[in-house]
Design goal:
The protein is mainly beta. Helix content is 12%, strand content 37%.
């Protein structure tokens, strides 16, 4: 989770127990959805409670959950459900749920479970959209049996701006900061733009009812992973739950928000890796996994580790370059050499491919290989970046010999 950054000279200590107590879970007992909150809480604790208790070093977690319906119709409900942090050292454990009332009793599925996928397929499209049903099924299938043996490459970027540097003040650690399943990494400082590590659908948890803002975001990806982002200063006009976002979509800035428990000693994003390989939304170890071109390692204890990229080794507390969805070739150093900057695109057709972002003149880029596409300044050569996006070669300067893709 989030302990004092070991290499920060100053830290803002936040007591989060009060925040966790102040956040009141949804209660629908007086309305049409009577019994929903209790049923979701019971299912969530049955699915996630034992793992959370083990990580926190307690026999069992308190029977308490933040249940937040997002869409409801008749006997169906869909939304977020979170086991909040119950002390300054304990992070929230967020998930999604779908519920169907049959003969007066609620059937509940939690994201990552077979029941969740089955119920989302049955739910009305007004409760779970057709595109969400497809994504949840795809995510679950990709994270199925054998997911622990998944490739080292996650297909994820670091959760910051492409081709930029970011400090990481917390080496691999458990979500709660204790335990041996190192699923989490801490990145950035005050003002750091936090971005989606891959394309997917975005969901909020622990929304502060007073401001309609949230510090905790989940993104469900088609490749079997779900990524979590905590402590955010969320940007305004955040999209509705279930909105599709691209790699690099802005989620907010690194902050110290602990609306659902835990602590934050200095602004950062608490980034978590999760999958459904154990029939629930289980945390996935980042050890041995490659994210943003870096493979993460532990020195044997929480927050103490290092990252490697080729022959480069960076201890936690250092700075990492975001190579994006690294594909293996290179990286070959290059810079933007256009006074108007260079548009980075999804593919090599400048008339049909949307612009991911515009890299300013002089910006350093990491190239992987070259291919051909539409002509830009009478040049049909395009470079693929290590995050698998593309940029026109006529706008780039490099002394390296770039191989064909």
């Amino acid at each position: 989770m989030t302990r004092p950054h070991r290499r920060r000279a100053t830290a803002i200590a936040l007591a989060a127990a009060a925040a966790a107590v102040a956040f009141v879970p949804f209660s629908a007992e007086a309305g049409q959805q009577a019994g929903l909150a209790d049923s979701v809480t019971d299912t969530l604790l049955a699915e996630r409670g034992p793992a959370v208790a083990e990580q926190r070093g307690v026999a069992a977690v308190a029977r308490h959950a933040v249940v937040e319906p997002r869409r409801e119709v008749s006997d169906w409900s869909f939304g977020a459900a979170t086991i909040p942090g119950d002390a300054a050292a304990h992070a929230p454990d967020a998930s999604l749920y779908v519920a169907h009332r049959v003969a007066g009793r609620w059937q509940v599925g939690v994201l990552g479970s077979d029941t969740f996928v089955a119920l989302t397929r049955q739910a009305p499209d007004s409760v779970v959209s057709a595109s969400e049903k497809g994504l949840f099924a795809q995510n679950h299938a990709a994270a199925g049996p054998g997911a622990a043996a998944r490739s080292v490459e996650t297909g994820l970027a670091l959760p910051v701006t492409a081709s930029s540097n970011v400090g990481w003040g917390g080496g691999p650690h458990a979500n709660d900061g204790s335990g041996s399943l190192y699923s989490s990494l801490d990145f950035g400082g005050s003002g750091t733009e936090v971005r989606a590590a891959a394309a997917g659908k975005v969901y909020r948890a622990c929304v502060d009812a007073g401001s309609n803002q949230t510090a905790l975001i989940l993104i469900v990806h088609a490749n079997g992973y779900t990524t979590g982002y905590y402590h955010l200063n969320q940007r305004g006009n955040f999209p509705a739950d279930g909105t599709s976002v691209d790699l690099g979509y802005s989620l907010g800035t690194a902050g110290t928000n602990t609306v659902c428990g835990g602590s934050a000693n200095g602004a950062h994003v608490h980034f978590t890796l999760r999958s459904g390989d154990r029939n629930n939304l289980a945390f996935e170890s980042v050890i041995g996994k490659t994210i943003g071109g870096w493979t993460f390692h532990t020195n044997g204890s929480n927050y103490d580790g290092y990252a490697t990229h080729g022959n480069t080794k960076v201890q936690d507390g250092g700075t990492l370059y975001n190579y994006g969805r690294y594909t293996g070739n290179g990286p070959y150093a290059a810079t933007v050499s256009s006074s108007n900057g260079a548009n980075v695109r999804y593919n090599t057709n400048s008339s049909t491919s949307s612009t991911m972002y515009t890299a300013p003149n002089g910006r350093a880029l990491a190239l992987s290989c070259k291919t051909t596409g539409s002509a830009v300044n009478n040049n049909t050569t395009w470079y693929r970046l290590t995050d698998t996006d593309y940029v026109a070669a006529s706008l780039i300067s490099t002394t390296a010999t770039i191989p064909n893709c």
